[in-house]
Amino acid sequence: MSENKDPHVGHVTQSVEGVKFVYDFTEGNKDLKDLLGGKGANLAEMTNLGLPVPPGFTITTEACQVYLDSGEEPAALRDEVSAHLVALEERMGKKLGQADNPLLVSVRSGAKFSMPGMMDTVLNIGLSDKSVKGLADQAGDDRFAWDSYRRLIQMFGKTVLGVDGDLFEEALEAAKAAKKVTVDTDLEAADLKKLVTKYKKIVKAEAGRDFPQDPREQMDLAIKAVFDSWNGDRAKLYRRQERIPGDLGTAVNVCSMVFGNLGPDSGTGVAFTRDPASGHQGVYGDYLQNAQGEDVVAGIRNTVPLAELESIDKKSYDQLMRIMETLENHYKDLCDIEFTIERGQLWMLQTRVGKRTAGAAFRIATQLVDQGLIDEAEALQRVTGAQLAQLMFPRFDEDAKVEKVGRGIAASPGAAVGKAVFDSYTAVKWSRSGEKVILVRRETNPDDLDGMIAAEGILTSRGGKTSHAAVVARGMGKTCVCGAEELEVDTKRRRMTVPGGHVVEEGDLISIDGSTGKVYLGEVPVVPSPVVEYFEGRMHAGAHDADELVEAVHRIMAFADRKRRLRVRANADNAEDALRARRFGAQGIGLCRTEHMFLGDRRELVERLILADTEAEREESLKELLPLQKQDFVELFSAMDGLPVTIRLLDPPLHEFLPDITELSVRVALAESRQEPHENELRLLQAVHRLHEQNPMLGLRGVRLGLVIPGLFTMQVRAIAEAAAERKNAKGDPRAEIMIPLVGTVQELEIVREEADQVVAEVEAATGTELKLAIGTMIELPRAALTAGQIAEAAEFFSFGTNDLTQTVWGFSRDDVEASFFTAYLERGIFGVSPFETIDKDGVGSLVKLAADAGRATRPDLKLGVCGEHGGDPESVHFFHEVGLDYVSCSPFRIPVARLEAGRAASQSAGSDHR
């Protein structure tokens, strides 16, 4: 063990085997958050800036990690704390808890990431039956001393000894009632002294021990309690919600006490250097006279606006304004500040980069650029795709009176109001009559697509964030709440029963919030999003605040577009979605799902094709489908003229195009019982039985379907080639790319490619038009990823289908697992987030990187993209940038988010390279 006392700063440095567990506030800085936690690092930074910070020291997160791993504090910790405590006592001219001139300290948590209110704090440590008298003499105020003592017993009893906090509150209320007062500041010293006696009895009865009178025991137990609070239920829940790693641990800050409860010339407050709600500059915060910090947080008494401090204590107010300006210029960001005034002396207790609303984040970032405090690259790091998404979706008026009747999974953001309808047909019919509807189902399937398109929003009682309803709704920008299990949906009787027995009949108005998962009765007023109007080119100038927000978003998006390397394409299946995507900034279509073109009116043609007994029947079906399919592509190429359009050949499993086997069996049985003609139904049922699969998602689909049903893929390729030729001859610039789905071996791709090349050559000869149609494949099976080097010999591009790749890597059926066990996995920390939301970097991500590297090793000019749901997920976009993909593709409404995150990813990597 070594000791080094620095006479200039009065602190002691001790280490054991090179590990140092305690740092004086003079030793750290804001860049040591991993070690000192956010609070400790920022206290050190303010100390170094010469701001008035009460002296103290920080116990590191490493000490907490040792404690959490072993159940015991590091052997050297007590000696290090003792050395720093002695140095603190020398500096303050007092000793911890001594009878005549006591030093009191606070013990506060402070993790790397802000977790407000989630972990524990104890103030006024060092007070005892003896030292309370010394504190009273020191302050010349008996009431203050006994008030501080009762606060210590209350906080210590609840936080350290596990006593029910309500017992202390009840005793306090009884004391106020006996005195016939309503606020605790009206209690006098004698009242508070009696309250201390009562509090100690509560501790003895509930904790089975006396309140400790030894000040060092108080401090050591409080430090241990803060360590323990890292794994408290509320802290773990918060970390899961905010996706904060559970192994970081918390630092502990031991700080000499300053007192805001010393009378009317004392107080405590919270200040922001800008309004965290709007981003506007000004004086924002709250102040409470004659109070300690916990009073402000707990809302025990009403605070006054920070601006009123100017008339209460002009000197402290002016000093605080200067410090706030210093901190904002130093941190180059909105700062959240806690301060105390002790008899006219201002003390800074904490600063951190403040949390803010999404709108404020964009405004503040551009304001700081204009002030020259940050550059464009840094501005991109001050906002997130999640914040942009919040700004894009309509929202309910928070001030409206509402009747909440249920809650499900927030599957697709937005606020939707409409009449409840219980089938797709009614949704379409009512929508065409001008009615706004909410499609309510137990769960949706491809047959509901028309109704989903017609509806304002979708509500299901089953399913999760990646259920059919959720995935399709996000793709369309539709509000969706899934898995609202407390709602009983009866589609046959066209009604929904909500908790309490109230019945929602078809036609009744309901409102659903896809950002929170809440379901309401009646119509909740909706506030539109000016940001979406801006992206769609139809921004109507309204309130000045909206104009200012749109301008900030516009500038940030311009920064991102200049910085990003990844291109952003859209998942779009028709001209309408393609045009919307283009307005949102799409640089092409990365996934056109042709199966969506075959539903609805064309379903019968596909059914006939699949069930055809003869080649002539099959050819007839293909002949009827060809011109319809060609027109689809003509419209798509026109909408995306000059930009690449990647068309995936038919992919879904057969059952999506065939009648439901149960319904068909019932129809046949009924016809037989009534002795009615049913030859066609019987023939169809026999065919459906023949083609029935136990696990259709892993059965006859994708490239397998194209190989088994002759002419199916060549019909689609011909339609693409003829549409491209027609568009090119009309002076357009079609850039078609043909994508073969579900390839597992290069031989499959080679066979389909050979047939496709032959068809394209025939169309070129017939039209006299040279066509350059790239042919590639989806990488959505582990085998495809593992043999990507071979597959690249026959593919000009790869598009990673990360939805199916996640399913096949994990062995999950995404339509089932979220509802069955994902909640338990998330609660137990097995998942930090669903692997269908954010890409699993270690598993699925490893296969993506392996396939990308192997593919480019074979074909250096291989184009790489991603078209799964992850293409619009902020964290996943960063991963795709890192592994070197060329583009991401996502639903039209997620394009701005992907553009922003692609810019942020490029800016981050450039900053890392520079460092």
Automatic annotation (TrEMBL):
Signal peptide: none annotated. Substrate binds at residues 593, 648, 780, 801-804. PROSITE patterns: PEP_ENZYMES_PHOS_SITE. Residues 435-517 form the PEP-utilising enzyme mobile domain. The active site is at 468 (tele-phosphohistidine intermediate), 867 (proton donor). Its cofactor is Mg(2+). Pfam families: PEP-utilizers, PEP-utilizers_C, PPDK_N. Residues 551-903 form the PEP-utilising enzyme C-terminal domain. Keywords: ATP-binding, Kinase, Magnesium, Metal-binding, Nucleotide-binding, Pyruvate, Transferase. InterPro entries: ATP_grasp_subdomain_1, PEP-util_enz_mobile_dom, PEP_util_AS, PEP_util_C, Phosphohistidine_dom_sf, PPDK_AMP/ATP-bd, Pyruvate_phosphate_dikinase, Pyrv/PenolPyrv_kinase-like_dom. Residues 77-302, 308-359 form the Pyruvate phosphate dikinase AMP/ATP-binding domain. PANTHER family: PHOSPHOENOLPYRUVATE DIKINASE-RELATED (PTHR22931), PYRUVATE, PHOSPHATE DIKINASE 1, CHLOROPLASTIC (PTHR22931:SF9). Belongs to the PEP-utilizing enzyme family. This is Pyruvate, phosphate dikinase. It comes from Streptomyces capitiformicae.
